[in-house]
Amino acid sequence: MEEMLTAVVSLAAIGSGLGLVLGVAARRFAVEGDSRVEEVIAMLPAANCGQCGFPGCAGAAEAIVAGDASPACCPPGGKVVALAIAEHLGIALGDDMDDVLPTIAVIEDALCIGCTKCYRLCPSDAIIGATRQLHGVFADACTGCNQCAEKCPTGAITMQALPTTPGTWVMPKPALVS
Amino acid sequence: MAHIVIPPIRRLLARWGVHPDARKYPAAGLASLDAGLPPQLVVSLSQQAGAPARPVVRVGDHVLRGALLAEASGAVSAPLHAPTSGTVIAIGDAPMAHPSGLPGAAITLRPDGLDQWGERIGHPYPITLSPEEIAGRVSAAGIVGMGGAAFPSALKLSLGKRSNIDTVILNGSECEPYLSCDDRLMQECAADIIEGARLILRATGATRLLVGIEDNKPEAINAMKIAAHPYPEVSVIRMPSRYPMGSERQLIHTLTGIEPPAGGRSADVGVVAHNVGTALAVYRALRHGEPLTERLVTVAGGAVTSPRNLRVRIGTPLSWLFAQCGGLRSVPARLVVGGPMMGVGVSDVDIPVGKGTSGVLALTPAEVGEREPAACIRCGSCVTACPVGLMPLEMAARINANELGKAEDIGLGDCLTCGACGFVCPSRIPLVQYFAHARGELRARDRDRQRLERVRQLTEARAERIERAAREKAEMHARRKAERAAAAEAQARAKEKAETEENPA
Amino acid sequence: MQEAILAVISIVLVNNVVLVRFLGLCPFMGVSRKIDSALGMGLATTFVMTLSSMASWLLEYGLLRPFGLGYLRILACIVVIAAVVQFVEMVIRKTTPDLHRVLGIYLPLITTNCAVLGIPLLNAQSGLGVGMSVLTGFSSGVGFTLVMILFAGLRERLELVRVPATFSGAPIAYITASLLALAFMGFAGLVPAGGH
Amino acid sequence: MNDVVHASPHALARRTSSQIMGLVMLALLPATLAGFWHFGWPAFCLWLVCIVACVLCEAICLQWSGRRVLPVLSDGSAALTGWLLALSLPPWAPWWLAVLGSAFAIVLAKQVFGGLGCNVFNPAMVGRTILLVSFPVQMTQWVSPLLLSQGTDLAQAISIGLSGAVPDAYTSASLLGHVKTELGRGIGLADAMQGVLPAGAWLGGRAGSLGETSSLLILLGGGFLVLKRVIGLRIPLGFMAGLCLPAAIAHALAPDAFLPPLAHLLSGGAMLGAFFIATDYVTSPSAPFGQWIFAVGAGLLTWLIRTWGGYPEGVGFAVLLMNAATPLLDMWARPRIFGRSLGGKALPARRARESVR
User: Fold this and answer.
1) What range does the domain containing A130 cover?
2) In this model, does residue A5 exceed pLDDT 90?
3) Full DSSP string of A83-118
4) In chain A, how many domains are there?
5) Which of B228, C21, C23, C36 is the right S-S partner for C115, CB 3.0 to 4.6 Å?
6) Does the reported pTM lie above 0.95?
7) Alpha-carbon span A40 to A58, nearest angstrom
8) What is the ipTM metric for this complex?
9) What is the count of residue pairs from B and C with beta carbons less than 8 Å apart?
């Protein structure tokens, strides 16, 4: 009986003593909550184009942090953003990277009626033009979000891959040794 | 009197680099010939480092030799001049020497056969010109580095004021196998080269000129020594033959003992290096007023019937050069523009010669040594060969595993892409291709990043604009409402007042 | 002094905690993909092992032996070590969040890491003094760290080569670990039996 | 656009991987022939069994993993592994030992890692070491060197190889094993060394593994490889220094308890290890400084294990241990990059004129 009491008392003493120390430490070394969603939002292009299937860039960031979406889900961001997010969150990227090819909107002159619908819609101001005048696309600013193509009444806008020039050409990786 | 300097033995015994078979003969032993005028000349707009030149002629224009075809655009660029007299027949995409095989913008000229010079304004004693004047004329003559990099030379000349250059190096090492155009130039025009180099010396304000020549070119060393004899500031230095001795940084280290800091320019240590061909072009531009319209090109390789050095107009297609050398005697395994170590492998014989083209090679399968790549056995040959002290096998393994960032961490950015590692690799692993791929990919990512940043700014600006418009609208709405309310109240009050006035107590 | 040196050699090399005693295999396999995290894990474990050796010696001679509570040894050790680990985790999380992110779930796992529990228990069994206890704990940690970074280096190399699909991942890691253990067998007998 | 991209360089040095393997085999030939001469037909049979077993194992693995068999086999690496394994086995070892060792070397140490260039441990040493810890009796059954003529004929050799039973008349002890036993019995070195290191030791007239005994011929082969630039001098020199320096110091302090450096060098697999085992490309560091650390470390560990360890010979273990450190050495002992400090920072810009002679 006495032995049992000693055992219980001593273990209780150890436990409560250590608990006290840990309790103090928990206050002393407290850490704030998860800031990763904000960090991921800052990395995304902020175009809120919706190509990822989430409500805007903030929604995509939440999904990526929660693990519901791949960092490669952002077509305008492409490889750069995917790699940056993956590295930041410590996620391994699959081989699906090469499928994410950047595209831009191309307006076919013959079909454009200058209705300015696309011009008003473009989230990144990449379409230049005025009422009843031929519209043009500022390729450097186009995210390829496809919103203009959906709204174009004459179907003059198509999404096309960026053409390769000697300046943008990348030497292919050598084939694997068999 | 020029003195002869021998670099310290420690530097000569350094273990970097490789010793490929020189294969410079028979071309190196034969006097250079004029290649004549081909039926068409294609002057590529982006044959110099930096921005492409901007055309100033139109299709149909008739031009004389030396006339301006395109002007420099931007800080790093160079103008282009008509290589002969003739008619501009096209401005647009044409084949060019690029590993991708993609075409680039060019001006196509049909020679009229008269080869008539336009106005040439030379100077009888160019050495009396001011440094600024020299740099200006070199810039106007469209002179670029003729060793292969094609960097606009005038930019290097005007560095002197800012960087306090004290040494000019004349690069006569010509360490690439097969190539002998610099060798021939030094043998045939040594005096003019030295004059040109002295003009460079004057333009940069430097006080000594070191001419570095590899010891496998004894005739060139002799010729240059004789030409340099009257000038005490010129030293001709015999260097060991080793690839890549002609790389600017390795050359500076061998000749001066200074190790230029990584990431910086050679001017930071007070040195600039110019190719011997550049010096000759500088002399011709200043003495005779001739812009850069021709250069010496080595045409060689096992598939060429009679290899030779040819004086070639800029824009001459490769097929014309081969024809001048007796044609091809077998189907080449590879056509190379430049040297075999760093040149561009091409497949089109219509590709034109540019200002930086030092050689045109048609190589047989045996010379190329084409074998299927095998597994890396980690022999370390590439580590020993690397002139920069990198571990190519480790870099390639990381790039192969798509870990480009890690490859960068261990020195991808310091790689010269000189090809020494790929040359010695017993497993024939295309190391340089790995590095070129990784660099291209990293550059592409950089571009994408910048583009995204721009898009982000535009998007934010738009969002802000819309928000501001909405706010202004709301404010205006509120103001109107307030005004209306105020007006109504005033009216009501007036009415009330009127009523009170009407019914005074 | 000589005894201490021999003990360190014995614990680090001859009776290596991972490769010879087969303790702490969970982090050995789990956190050895990258050298940085292996090093972090090794250092954290060394720290915890040293502290817990000290704590359990105090426990052993301050409480368990005087009161004849030897039968509570395992229970009490677990409580003490768990508390030490919790403490270390909080400190790391606050001071070096990156290391915390890398160590991930493995840091709490140190709590139930058999090496961390095993070494103090072995110390208690062999009746070592406080100095030797702490030294044993520390050198066990050093041995653990050494093997961790060697193994992590090997695994990083293996990431870069084309291991057949059948063997890539865990299988090749186990094979590598076995060959590493084979190499460590060379140390057998290096310290005369009874040294430790 | 080009269909096939031809990246530079467009020229190639002539030496290929299989040529390198061939040169190494050529360099091994004198020591191997000496081994045959000293240990007779059983040694030859062992050598043959090892090589055939290694090549067969490699072929089977390649076939199984669906890779092309003949082109890969022709690189000669499997045969070289078998050769090196044979040289490190007792000359009259039974056939099954050789086959087992070859299987471990090729399958476990090489092919499961992905084949040539992918393994992290030296295959021959993995094979030998597994055999040593698994079959200590058979692996320490040495025979005294006999001349081919007065030894066994082929038929006898085959029966020895099949049964693994070495006639008592031929058994002998290796120097290291003998010294370890005698020191263990409390006998001083001076007595233990009596007549163990005969004058012919340089040429292989001593008990030991098949190819490790004739140090002079190994040195010859190693020198050939150095001249041919197949191997560098760093690893052999570093290994010998790492082995001999502590041995010399210890021997000077206590001559009766520690073997002299020359005895270390001439006994066991020290020379073979220095020139042919530690220099294995795949499992040794590829940068100069890393090679020095690797080699000195391997030599030092060999001395430690030989002197105090439970096993009389430590070359195999030492090489395996340093193999394990090789990835770290490759990572941390990289050469200095031109224009940068060792730490990777750009050098300060020195002016040309200040440093002129």
Assistant:
1) 103-161
2) no
3) HHHHHHHTPPP-GGGGG---EEEEE-TTT-----HH
4) 2
5) C23
6) no
7) 8
8) 0.86
9) 6
